[in-house]
Specification:
Blueprint lengths: L4 H10 L6 E4 L6 H12 L2 E6 L16 H12 L8 E6 L5 H13 L4 E5 L3 H6 L10 E4 L5 H7 L3 H9 L8 H17 L3 H10 L2 H22 L5 H9 L1 H6 L16 H13 L3 E7 L10 E10 L2 H7 L12 H4 L4 H11 L6 E5 L5 E8 L2 E7 L8 H10 L4 E5 L4 E3 L2 E5 L6 H10 L1
Parallel strand pairs: 1-4, 1-5, 2-3, 3-4, 6-8, 10-11, 11-13
Antiparallel strand pairs: 6-7, 8-9, 9-10, 12-13
Helix pairs in contact: 1-2, 6-7, 8-14, 9-10, 10-14, 11-13
Length: 439
């Protein structure tokens, strides 16, 4: 299935100052598939090493980290000749071999002509706790669950995906296309963006088996807790994970530790929560007390919300029934409308790697605040066709922004200083903001 990451990988390959690449992303989002597919398309040869399943590979890095020596050993072990420019060398599950991870520094310093890409499960956790990691010696990219536009291509709706790619100016989408896109978007909310679930639906249109696949992915994540997490944190990680639905079902989405367990405090569970965030399983949205540049400087880090990495997995975790797909906007309204918010969070991450929201002393709350270039955009998420915009108006009165953004199932249009954007168009948002900047 085509992924947008391919264009970023092509840019990495063409860079004059290219460094070894680390492709980050949570388990089962398609990192290995994407690297292999890119290698087959852009190189004459792909040499694939998996440090988790091929334990004998570890010995190739035990004798020293001199790059040419390592390359010679890999060539002998794999029975291939590794040539610069024409070979992509993939180090998969690199977290299982610390020496291989550290070797990337020396490949950059001594043999930069070789093209090396690494990936791994729970690599975010490993990198956050690896002393002496060669900062500045590697390039990073992050792969997320499939976006809605990637989903459209995967299920054979290429003309619709192509049409969305052409949108640059704010103008209503033709009604017949708008209705179809909203219907497909409902299915995306149920299926989500995990490649295995999307591929199965694309091939079989079997929505029930999709749920089984999602449950298997969730079970695999929980197994990771016991396999990879610090032993003294496993139970707390599981408790945080299991509290997510209750955290999001509250009218106030703010993460509250006592929801995990009565009387629980931050100092007991903050390490467990951070592990889930570093693993890429939870997306954190931090409160800001003032929407000024840069947003990070105005963050109140003790106040935050968390969302699941994928909206389909969120629905599976609360056993949201498939019958809702046949009931207009019911799937958006159920579970306190949280599916729409969760989707917006995962769709904004490729645009802004740190997410923020804003409140005004209980008077108003905006679900997200986006910093793009030198402007700040307040964002309100509506789960249906509601045109109420109380929070946006309070924010506008206080800060006079150039543009306010409201995501809903309504058609694309600009109503004064409010951009009404359909939920299905979020991953095209920068097209409209770039046009706004050019005005």
């Amino acid at each position: 299935m085509p992924r947008h990451i391919m264009s970023q990988l092509a840019t990495w390959k063409a860079k004059k100052n290219r460094k070894p690449l680390i492709l980050k992303g949570s388990r089962q989002v398609g990192k290995t598939y994407s690297l292999k597919a890119f290698g087959q398309k852009a190189y004459d040869q792909v040499v694939y090493l998996n440090f988790e399943t091929q334990l004998s590979l570890h010995s190739l890095f035990k004798e020293g980290l001199e790059p040419n020596g390592i390359l010679d050993l890999i060539s002998l072990d794999q029975g291939v000749k590794i040539t610069p420019e024409s070979t992509l060398l993939i180090f998969d599950e690199i977290q299982a071999c610390p020496e291989a991870l550290n070797s990337l520094k020396y490949f950059y310093e001594k043999t930069p002509e070789y093209h090396i890409a690494a990936a791994g499960s729970l690599l975010g956790v490993k990198l956050a706790h690896t002393a002496g990691f060669p900062v500045g010696k590697v390039d990073f990219l992050t792969l997320y669950p499939m976006s809605f536009s990637e989903f459209l291509v995967a299920v054979g709706e290429n003309p619709l995906a192509d049409y969305l790619n052409t949108l640059q100016v704010v103008a209503p989408v033709p009604d017949i296309m708008h209705v179809k896109l909203n219907k497909l978007f409902k299915y995306y909310l149920y299926i989500g963006g995990m490649p295995e679930a999307v591929a199965h639906y694309a091939e079989n249109q079997d929505i029930l088996t999709v749920r089984s696949i999602q449950n298997n992915i969730l079970a695999a994540y929980e197994l990771d807790f016991s396999k990879h997490a610090p032993k003294n944190e496993i139970m707390r990680i599981s408790q945080v994970w299991q509290s997510l639905a209750a955290q999001l079902a509250k009218e106030n989405r703010k993460f509250i530790y006592s929801v995990i367990r009565k009387g629980a405090r931050a100092k007991e569970f903050e390490i467990a929560l951070q592990w889930l965030i570093e693993a890429g399983l939870l997306n954190k949205v931090t409160l800001i007390n003032k929407p000024c540049l840069p947003l990070q400087a105005y963050a109140k880090f003790e106040h935050f919300k968390v969302y699941l990495l994928d909206v389909g997995l969120l629905g599976a975790s609360v056993n949201l029934p498939a019958r809702l797909l046949a009931q207009e906007e019911k799937i958006l309204e159920e579970f306190s409308g949280i599916l729409a918010e969760n989707y917006v969070a995962q769709a904004l991450l490729p645009i802004q790697s740190s997410l923020f929201y804003w409140t005004s002393e209980g008077e108003a709350e905006l679900d997200f605040v986006l910093q793009y270039e030198d402007k700040i955009y307040p964002i309100e998420v509506k789960s249906g066709q509601s045109t109420r915009k109380k929070s946006l108006l309070i924010y506008a009165k206080k800060y006079q922004p150039d543009l306010l953004i409201r995501f809903s199932t309504l058609n694309l249009k600009k109503d004064g200083d409010v951009l009404n954007c359909p939920l299905y168009l979020i991953d095209k948002l920068l097209n409209f903001l770039s046009h706004d900047h050019s005005q």
